[in-house]
Amino acid sequence: MDPTHSSLEHHPMRELIRLSKSTLDQTDKSAVASVLDNEYLGMGNEVNLFEKKLANYFGRPVVCVSNGTAALHLALQACGIGPGDEVLVQSLTYVASFQAISATGAIPIPCDILQDTYTIDCRDAENRLTTRTKAIMPVHYSGGVGNLDEIYNFAMLHNLRVIEDAAHAFGTTYGNKKVGSFGDISCFSFDGIKNITSGEGGCLVSEDEEIVDCVRNSRLLGVVNDTVSRYNSKRSWDFEVEQQGWRYHMSNIMAALGKSQFQRLDEISLKRQELAIYYDKIFKSIPNVAIINHDYTKVVPHIYPIRLKGITNRETLRKRLLTKGIETGVHYKPNHHLKYYHNSSSTPLHVTDCVYKELLSLPLHLDLDFNDISYITDSLLEEFVY
Question: Does residue 2 belong to any structural domain of this protein?
Answer without folding.
Answer: no
